[in-house]
TrEMBL record:
PROSITE patterns: KH_TYPE_1 (PS50084). It comes from the Bacteria. Residues 285-345 form the NusA-like second KH domain. PANTHER family: TRANSCRIPTION TERMINATION FACTOR NUSA, TRANSCRIPTION TERMINATION_ANTITERMINATION PROTEIN NUSA. The gene is nusA. Gene3D superfamilies: 3.30.300.20, Nucleic acid-binding proteins, NusA, N-terminal domain. The keyword Coiled coil does not apply. Residues 202-279 form the Transcription factor NusA first KH domain. It comes from Aequorivita aurantiaca. Belongs to the NusA family. Its main location: cytoplasm. This is Transcription termination/antitermination protein NusA. Participates in both transcription termination and antitermination. It is found in: Cytoplasm.
């Protein structure tokens, strides 16, 4: 009972840690063997008998009886007179088994045992947590905001596991308060030392893909396949979807009546603009769809260089490029092709970069930002419109227009 009381005192926290009795006893045996090695130099001649049902264990030391005065290793040998104090009929050469009481290890050793046991159980718990979350990589998970730091939000789940949502893994418009529930994907799980580091992401394209699975039944059931997702978090995304059943319109099913199905996803992503397009193996058609909402006139593809030259009417160019160049950049990522946009009649036009001797580079860059990269594309726009759409002064724009007009007047 002496051992049992001590073990119970060691394991009093096991219920909080949700560790089963059998695992606890295995950890206890390992801890005690380490203690025996420290005290006696070796644990090879010790038997540890574990009784998980009772929550008890016994420690027995086995030694050989030698003649008095001939003991060379007191851990493995015992003198005849000492052996006969245990049993009076022992003879030289026989094996003696003597139970070791935990209290015999000394108070200091018992305190060290307890600390070692706590450490081992934490290590065991961390391994379990690591394996649990490693299996959840790439899956949606929900946790509560516990602490907000400058570079990360610290979340806790229902079991008290800490999950980190770094600033760069958040959507730019994300704003959290303590106690808020946050959804994201488990992006990575690593063991640093013995502690698992769990990273959540809301900016990863996989998060959007998993939201489609969660919110759209046909995707969850496998009737619609999400072929590829590309994102500029919080700004714009493009999702290519396909269905093996010709009776199902994959885009219509994902968007829903008046956008009813995709509305929840858009809201979750901070009003991210999501274009859902039909996937196709027809590359010309795929690139055309990827540039939506722009209407493409014609496409010339160089498969070897992975480039596509797209011809559009002048009024469609800014749609193809999109605000901040987001639309054309995502279309390129979705299709895997670098897309060059040309206007119809561009052979009679002149690139703005040709005027770099007369127009400063930063001014040309301002026009590029809104999809205007040729002289005619700028001249087609009203001055007031250009003032609104760029960060340029009216006087600067008038100077540029005068320079461009001179080119065509010549």
């Amino acid at each position: 009972m002496e051992n049992l009381a001590l073990i119970d005192s060691f394991s009093e926290f096991k219920d909080d840690k949700q560790i089963d009795r059998v695992t606890l006893m295995a950890i206890l045996e390992d801890v005690f063997r380490n203690a025996l090695k420290k005290k006696y130099g070796s644990d090879d001649n010790f038997d540890i008998i574990v009784n998980p049902d009772k929550g008890d264990l016994e420690i027995w030391r086995n030694r050989i009886v030698v003649a008095d005065g001939e003991v060379e290793d007191p851990n493995e040998e015992i003198s005849l007179s000492a052996a006969r104090k245990i049993e009076p009929d022992f003879e030289i050469g026989e094996d003696v088994s003597e139970e070791v009481k935990l209290i015999d290890l000394g108070r200091r050793s018992i305190l060290a045992l307890r600390q070692n046991l706590i450490s081992k159980i934490h290590e065991h718990d961390n391994t379990i947590i690591y394996k649990q979350f490693k299996d959840l990589e790439g899956e949606i998970y929900t946790a509560e905001v516990h602490h907000i730091r400058h570079r990360a939000v610290i979340l806790l789940d229902d079991e008290g596991n800490e999950i980190i949502l770094p600033k760069e893994k958040q959507i730019p418009s994300d704003f959290f308060r303590k106690g808020d529930n946050v959804r994201g994907i488990i992006e990575s799980v690593d063991l640093k030392g013995n502690k698992p580091t769990i990273i959540m992401s809301r900016a990863n394209p996989v998060f959007l893909e998993k939201l489609f699975e969660q919110e759209i039944p046909e995707v969850f059931d496998g009737l619609i396949t999400v072929k590829k997702v590309v994102r500029i978090p919080g700004e714009k995304a493009k999702v290519a979807v396909d269905s093996y059943d010709d009776r199902i319109d994959p885009v219509g099913a994902c968007v829903g009546m008046k956008g009813s199905r995709i509305h929840g996803i858009v809201r979750e992503l901070g009003n991210e603009n999501i274009d859902v397009i039909n996937y196709t193996t027809n590359l010309n058609l795929y690139i055309t769809r990827a540039l939506s909402p722009a209407k493409v006139t014609s496409i010339k593809i160089d498969e070897a260089k992975k480039r596509a030259e797209v011809i559009l009417r002048p009024e469609e160019v800014s749609k193809a490029i999109g605000r901040g160049g987001h639309n054309i950049r995502l279309a390129g990522q979705l299709t895997g092709y670098e897309i060059d946009v040309l206007r119809e009649g561009a052979e009679e036009d002149v690139e703005l970069t040709e005027f770099s001797d007369e127009i400063e580079g930063w001014i040309i860059q301002e026009f590029h930002k809104i999809g205007l990269d040729t002289a005619k594309s700028v001249l087609e726009h009203d001055i007031n419109d250009l003032v609104k759409r760029t960060d340029l002064e009216e006087e600067t724009i008038r100077d540029v227009i005068n320079i461009l007009k001179e080119e065509f007047e010549e």
